[in-house]
């Protein structure tokens, strides 16, 4: 047989094998999807997401008002900036996605009243809240359809719920890194400055402390919720259990607290240095994302990819998020080495620029807390990957995607979330 004939036979066999894998995967997806239901775990996650968002927002608005009343205009301006700018960015992305959904023939057309409701929520800068509420409504509809024995409707509403949840989680992720992160650094910086200069005591210390805690919890939960929603949206991935979500939340909480404290300590000594470090970190990460062409379903053009890279680069100041599927072990190792060096540098600047005799509790307490939170973050991360990480994607699907280079035939990812292995 000629070489050309061999090539034709091999190609035909490979094509038949790919089609067989694709059909089998579609059948498995249907079984998997029909077996998934909206339950207490999903309801709790949605309510926690809404609650942490609102509480974080309320504390920021209250402190902004108090800064204005007390004549602290610099703090007022910074707090307002970190409230309005992130909300506008989230609103822009959310509106863009709503417009994209109009062109999707598989989705029902939204009524005029629904568009009015969307516009009202977007104008109020509550873009994620509306999507979480929509996701809850779709989940409840899937429950009613399941009780009536309507399997197709149950799968349809469950799919809509998952898609809205992943959209809301991604918006929440943007909002937390653009809003909660700078708010936490700002208020912690003020608390450290007041502790260094007791003569500048104010009545806002309690509110500022609670604002920092709420911001840290909001960031950690947004990361956890996002990783959970990505796995629920991907039908070819194992789902994240509530135990895994708890350990992952502790990991992100400790890691975020360590980074926020290190940056606040550096800002307390040399604010310009802290700004320079953040700017360099952001530029390097944004350039890496932009030059790496890490395309996701979030963006439909190169211009949106560049904007998306800039926004995601800000997230890398506090945490790493893999933009696409693939091994992350060495990436995490490199990222945490960079964080360790930056945190250590901030501690050195803090220790050299301060005297332990003036305020030993503040001097040693901040050092212990910074080191302890960083170590605990690493410990929780190792516990998660050792005992609570889902098994991931099957080998068969991985090979089929690699061979065909047509992932849309063999797998589909819900929403606009990234595709990664967390």
Report on the structure:
By secondary structure, the protein is mostly helical. It contains 14 helices and no strands. The chain has helices at 3-34, 40-69, 73-102, 112-123, 127-147, 151-196, 205-233, 242-269, 271-291, 302-315, 329-353, 360-388, 395-404, 407-410. The longest helix has 46 residues, at 151-196. It is globular. The chain crosses the membrane at residues 40-63, 75-95, 115-133, 170-195, 207-226, 272-291, 303-321, 333-353, 362-385. Belongs to the XK family. It is found in: Cell membrane; Membrane. It is a multi-pass membrane protein. InterPro entries: XK-rel, XK-related_scramblase.
How would you summarize the topology of this molecule?
Layout: H1 3-34, H2 40-69, H3 73-102, H4 112-123, H5 127-147, H6 151-196, H7 205-233, H8 242-269, H9 271-291, H10 302-315, H11 329-353, H12 360-388, H13 395-404, H14 407-410
Helix pairs in contact: 1-13, 2-3, 2-5, 2-6, 2-7, 3-6, 5-6, 6-7, 6-8, 6-10, 7-8, 8-9, 8-11, 8-12, 9-10, 11-12
Structural class: mainly alpha
Count helical runs: 14
How much is the radius of gyration in Å?
24 Å
- Taken from the alpha-carbon principal axes, the silhouette is globular
Summarize this entry quickly.
The chain has 422 residues and is mainly alpha-helical. The protein has helices at 3-34, 40-69, 73-102, 112-123, 127-147, 151-196, 205-233, 242-269, 271-291, 302-315, 329-353, 360-388, 395-404, 407-410.
């Amino acid at each position: 047989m000629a070489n050309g004939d061999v090539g034709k036979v091999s190609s035909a066999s490979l094509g038949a094998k790919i089609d067989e894998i694709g059909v089998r995967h579609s059948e498995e997806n249907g079984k998997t999807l029909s077996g998934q239901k909206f339950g207490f775990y999903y309801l709790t996650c949605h309510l926690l997401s809404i609650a942490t968002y609102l509480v974080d927002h309320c504390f920021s608005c209250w402190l902004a008002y108090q800064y204005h009343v007390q004549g602290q205009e610099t703090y007022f301006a910074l707090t307002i900036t970190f409230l309005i700018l992130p909300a506008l960015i989230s609103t822009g992305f959310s509106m863009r996605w709503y417009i994209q959904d109009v062109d999707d023939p598989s989705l029902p057309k939204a009524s005029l009243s629904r568009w009015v409701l969307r516009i009202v929520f977007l104008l109020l800068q509550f873009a994620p809240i509306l999507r979480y509420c929509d996701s809850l409504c779709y989940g409840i509809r899937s429950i009613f359809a399941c009780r009536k024995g309507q399997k197709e409707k149950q799968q349809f509403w469950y799919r809509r719920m998952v898609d809205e949840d992943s959209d809301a989680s991604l918006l929440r992720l943007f909002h937390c890194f653009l809003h909660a992160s700078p708010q936490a650094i700002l208020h912690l910086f003020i608390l450290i400055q007041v502790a260094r200069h007791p003569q500048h005591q104010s009545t806002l210390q309690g509110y500022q402390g609670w604002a920092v805690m709420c911001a840290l919890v909001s960031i950690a939960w947004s990361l956890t919720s996002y990783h959970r929603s990505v796995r629920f949206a991907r039908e070819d991935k194992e789902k994240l259990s509530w135990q895994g979500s708890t350990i992952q939340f502790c990991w992100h909480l400790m890691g975020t607290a360590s980074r926020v404290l290190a940056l606040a300590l550096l800002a307390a000594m040399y604010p310009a240095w802290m700004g320079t470090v953040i700017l360099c970190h952001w530029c390097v990460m944004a350039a890496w994302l932009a030059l790496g062409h890490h395309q996701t379903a979030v963006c439909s053009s190169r211009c949106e990819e560049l904007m998306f890279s800039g926004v995601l680069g800000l997230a890398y100041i506090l945490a790493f998020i893999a933009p696409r599927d693939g091994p992350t072990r060495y990436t995490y190792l490199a990222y945490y080495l960079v964080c360790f060096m930056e945190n250590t540098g901030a501690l050195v600047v803090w220790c050299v620029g301060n005297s332990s005799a003036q305020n030993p509790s503040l001097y040693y307490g901040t050092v212990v807390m910074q080191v302890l939170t960083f170590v605990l973050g690493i410990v929780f991360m190792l516990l998660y990957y050792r005992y609570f990480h889902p098994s991931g994607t099957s080998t068969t699907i991985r090979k089929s995607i690699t061979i065909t280079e047509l992932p849309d035939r063999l797998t589909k990812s819900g929403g606009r979330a990234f595709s990664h292995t967390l």
